[in-house]
Amino acid sequence: MRIGNLDSRLVLVTDRGAVDVATASGGEFGPDPQEVYVRWEAFVDWAAALDLDSAAAVPFDPERLGAPVPRPGQLFAIGMNYRDHAAEAGFDLPESPPVFTKFRGSITGPSGRVVLPGETVDWEVELVVVIGRTASRVSAEDAWSHVAGITAGQDLSERTTQLAGPAPQFSLGKSFPGFTPMGPWLVTLDELVVAGLDRDALDLGCSVNGESVQKGNTADLVFSVPELIARLSAVLPLEPGDVIFTGTPAGVGAARDPRWFLKPGDRLVSTIAGIGELDQQFVAASKEM
């Protein structure tokens, strides 16, 4: 199942187009894409009984898609969670997951323009996990059962702001408008099985103007998705609709020699197997419309 946010309305995405959930359910489920996670188990049961082949589906322009999780109560982001990324940054592998957040005002859909607030904006493609059932002190073995689905994300980062002292400002440096694109939709775990994909080993990567800059696989995570959920939920409950950005592989611009950052006119395309792609184009602040 693919679940989308089309013009701020909850939809099921099919090969024929988008099925409006509020309409198809006769109002049993509302149009708000965020609210579906609160009733996730009931929604999954309803969707399983729906005849998608006969449901009214409308073709749509992908540029109308918003983030599948537009207003998470909590957004966790994990640093240094790929072995090769830790190595390129010159750090030892962490003994526990480094955690920060990205503020909600930075969340946007899978495509569109992003205004560059400075000259050191970097890319970080990431697998994003969305919680579907409250997780409190869960084991890693049980963690996937608390997941609604996965999506693609970019942890765009203004490195100068991020590293400004005396204490680094990770959350601020990663939360400018448009710095948290997600999408193109949420993919449930059963959809990966149908596609013959391993939820714990998904290829991901991104390119700038057609040139590959990152390429990795989630099998190389230092802390796997189940381990992240177990460790986070040991500290505080994870609630339906919460989001976890799981980290990025090697290839970021700040670690290159010479360093390489995004500039006006650049196009960043990020992909994750079984999910789809994000497409951001960057403009100078003076050209914001």
UniProtKB/TrEMBL annotation:
Disulfide bond as UniProt keyword: no
GO terms, molecular function: catalytic activity; metal ion binding
Alphabetically ordered keywords of this record: Metal-binding
Domain spans labelled Fumarylacetoacetase-like C-terminal: 75-282
Pfam families the UniProt entry points to: FAA_hydrolase (PF01557)
InterPro entries, alphabetized: FAH (IPR051121), Fumarylacetoacetase-like_C (IPR011234), Fumarylacetoacetase_C_sf (IPR036663)
Example GO BP: small molecule metabolic process
Keyword Metal-binding: yes
Family: Belongs to the FAH family.
Protein name per Swiss-Prot or TrEMBL: 2-keto-4-pentenoate hydratase/2-oxohepta-3-ene-1,7-dioic acid hydratase in catechol pathway
